[in-house]
Amino acid sequence: MNLSHPAEDMEVILQEICESCRRLYARNLLAGGDGNVSWRFPDGRIAMTPSGVSKRGLRPGDLAWLSLEGEVLLGSPSSERLMHLAVYRACPEARCVVHAHPPTTIAWTLARPEWDELPSGAMPEVILAAGRIPVVPYARPGTPALGESLIPHLPAHRLLALARHGGLAWGESLEEACNGMERLEHICQILKTAQDLGGFTELPPEEREVLRVRRAAMGPRLL
Question: The pTM is what?
Answer without folding.
Answer: 0.93
